[in-house]
Structure prediction request, 200 residues.
Amino acid sequence: MPPRIFQVGACERYYNNRRRRWCVTLGTGACYVTDEDDVLTTVLGSCIAACVRDPLRGVGGMNHFLLPFVERALPDQAELATRYGVHAMELLVNEVMKAGGRRSDLEVKLFGGASLTARRGDSGRRNIEFAYDYLKTEGLRLVSSDVGDVTPRRLEFHPRSGRARVLRLEAVRVPSLTEQELRFRRDLERAPIDGDVELF
Prediction:
């Protein structure tokens, strides 16, 4: 059976010679699902990444969203919609099931939601609250999480094994990441509408 690969948004898939496997870097608003032994990575500030997998069938994926909810109507464009948790979570869960996952067997890991700036409210906290509420409402099983605090993270997730590694980034990286998130949020508003390593 050919590999099932789904992606939307900014995903860069490349072969890592040192690891001898395919790696995928996800940007903000991205979602990626595979049944291959890929390594998925992203960098998180106040954003959340959910990692969803079916451990019995070897399929899983990751998303990366900036805000919990969209505050206005969006066109039917996944590239815009998946920047928001309410769409990104639905898409990730549905695509894992399309790739062979069974809803009752899904396990979820959550990462991110740091408080990087007081401007425009604590989006990290709101993202965390949304993610937990979503899992509870949908009856999905949370097996581990690393959320909150004030430190950005680099996340590495292995969908097939379920292993996740988190590297806490140095404080000097925070200002640039904060500005990047604020710039991304401003772009969303203007969009046309027609360290220690921890294992989880």
Remarks:
- Residues 5-191 form a domain with the 60s Ribosomal Protein L30; Chain: A; fold (CATH 3.30.1330.200).
